[in-house]
Amino acid sequence: MKKWEENIRKVSPYVPGEQPQTGDVIKLNTNENPYPPSPGVYEAYCAVDFGRFGLYPDPVSGDLVRALEKYYGLREGQVFVGVGSDDVLSIAFQTFFNSDRPILFPDVTYSFYPVWAAMYRIPYECPPLDENFRIRPKDYRRENGGVVIANPNAPTSIGLARGQMEEILRANQDVIVIADEAYVDFGGETVLPLLDRYENLLVVRTYSKSRALAGMRIGFAMGNERLIQALGDVKESINSYPMTRASVPVGVASLEDEEYFREHLRMVMDTRAWSKGQLEKRGFQVMESQANFLFARHPEMSGEYLFEQLRERKIFVRHFSGERIKEYLRITIGTDAQMERLMAALDEIIPDLF
Amino acid sequence: MKKWEENIRKVSPYVPGEQPQTGDVIKLNTNENPYPPSPGVYEAYCAVDFGRFGLYPDPVSGDLVRALEKYYGLREGQVFVGVGSDDVLSIAFQTFFNSDRPILFPDVTYSFYPVWAAMYRIPYECPPLDENFRIRPKDYRRENGGVVIANPNAPTSIGLARGQMEEILRANQDVIVIADEAYVDFGGETVLPLLDRYENLLVVRTYSKSRALAGMRIGFAMGNERLIQALGDVKESINSYPMTRASVPVGVASLEDEEYFREHLRMVMDTRAWSKGQLEKRGFQVMESQANFLFARHPEMSGEYLFEQLRERKIFVRHFSGERIKEYLRITIGTDAQMERLMAALDEIIPDLF
Known about the structure:
Largest sheet of chain A: 5 strands, mixed
Shape of chain A: globular
Strand content of chain A: 5-15%
Number of strands of chain A: 12
Oligomer: homodimer
Radius of gyration of chain A: 21 Å
Distance between the termini of chain A: 54 Å
C-alpha cells in the first residue's frame, strides 16, 4: 500500500439493485413504478426556462417546499427536500444521530441504514423481527440514540399500524424517531397525524415509488420546524444546491394531479392483489403487502435458484443473501402485462408436481 | 433545550450568494455564466425519455463518465461525477482526509473548504496568501493530512502556474492533493498533464461556470483509478443515485459542441478585459484574473458601502466579511450590457473627485 492510500476511507457500500440500461428486460427489482408520472409533470419538465440553466437553483427549493407544505397541510418550515429520500435520510443520520448510544432499527429492513450508520460512525443495534417478520414495538423500549422504522418495512412489505408506531414514539421521546414512509402511499398507515404530538418525529418520503419519479431524484422530510432547520443547516454544510432546475417544478407538478396519482396507486394495488393470488396458486408463501412489491418464498425452491432462473428469462427481481431472507424474492409490482409474463416464466421454472 | 435536541449536530453552514428568484436584477454574485449552454444541450434535455422518468438513473452515470474520459483523453475509470463540484469535493473530503494531521488550504480561498472540514471533523490549517494574495508553494512543505488548492483561486481570481502546482505536488506525495479547477477554463493552467506522474492528484471540475450549467448540477473529478474507485465507494455509502435522468445527457451534450464552448469562453474573457479596464478607470485596484470574475477594491470607498450601493440599484455582487478581503468586491463577468450597467451604476456611486 502506498503512503497516500493509508488515509483513504474504508467503507462497505450499499449495493443497489441492478440497473440494466437497455429496455428489453422486465425490471421488477428496484421497486420503481411501472407507470409514467402524470402528463402535467412532463409539461412542467419541458417548461423549464432554458435561458436560466446557467443560474444556480434556489438553494432551499422554496417552490417545492411550499407546495409540499400545502399538500400535506403543514406549517411553513415543516418540509425539507433532497435528492431522493436516500439523500434526506443520509443527512438526517448525520444531523440527528450524534449520541454515543446505539441507534435502533430492525435486523431485516432497508439495507442502507447500516451503511449510513457505518459511514457516519454511528453505533447501532438491530432488534430482530419476530418469526412472522413483524416489528415488535416493545423491542424499542431500551436506551438508544435514535430509532429508524421503515413503515411499511422493506423488503418485508409489512406495515405497522399507527397505534404501534405511537407505542414506539411514546417510549422514545428523548431521541429522534425517523419514520421512513417510502412505501406508505400503497396502503400503509402514515404517522403524519402524530407530527404535532411528537416534536421528535421525522417522517421521510420519496417521489421514487408512488409518484413514479425515481429518475428525477426527489425526496423529502416532514417534521417540526426545529428538526427541519437542523436538516437545512447540515445540508448547507455539504452542498448548497443539491436539486436541479428540472427537479423542483417536476416535483410541484406531480402534486397537482391528484386524480392521476390516486388512479395509478389503485392500479398498482389491484395488480398487487392479482399477483399475490397468482403466486400463491403456484405454491408461494407471500407476505401481506402494503407496498409496491411482494415478498415471497417458495417452500420447495431456493430463492437464489428462482432469482437466477428468472434472470435468464430477462426478468429481474431482487434477491438478498441475508440469512433470514435468502429464500425470499422481493418482486416489484409491474404492469399487468409484466406480471403475466412473470407468471408464465414461473410456470416454466416450477415443475408441475408442486 | 429539550432532551431530543441534545444530539442534533451543530454546524456553521456555508452561506451561498443570494439567489433572487426574480428576473429583474443583474446577478454578478455567484460566478455563473451569463450565456445559456449550447443549443445541443437543450435538445438533449428535451430528448430525455419521459416514459423512463419512473426508473432510477444509472448509479454510476456511465454515459457521462465515458464522455468525459474521452473528452479529456483519460483511461476508463479515471472520472467520477457528482451533483456539482461541491458534491464531488464533499465526498472527496470524506474519502481522502482521514488523517490526524491537518489538511492545508490557503487562508483566503473557497469558503466551503473550512465548512466541509468542520462537518467531517477534519483538522485543518490555513497558510496565509502573501501580501499580493498569491499562494506560496513553499508554505505547503510542512507535515499534513492532505492539500486543497483552488486554481485559479477564489475569490482572488489569481491562478498558479503548472510549475508552482508541481512544486506543491512534489512536496506532498504521501497525501491526496486536490486541485479544484472550477475556473480553469477561463485562462488558468490545468494540472491535468500531471495526472500520470502524481497518482495522489485529484483534479475537480464543474459544469457550473465555463459550461453554463449551474442549474443542472454537474461536477466531476479526474484522477487515477484507485482514487476514483474510492470516491465511488464512498458515494455508494451515501446516495446510490445522485444524478437525475436529465443531468447526464445534458452533461454529455455540452461536451459535443466545442466551437460554442470556446466561443463563449472567449466572450467572457473579452468582457473581463474590458471590465477590468473600466474599473481601473474608475480608480479600482483589480487583480489579474484567470477566472470568470474580478476581485477589486476601491482605495477610497469601503467594500461594504459599494456592495450596498450596488444592491440598492439591483446589481448583486459578492462581498465577504473576512478581515483580509472585506474591502474587496468579487464581481462576476456578465454580458457586455450587464457590465455597462454596472459601470453606469458605479459612476453614480463614486463621486467625481476621485
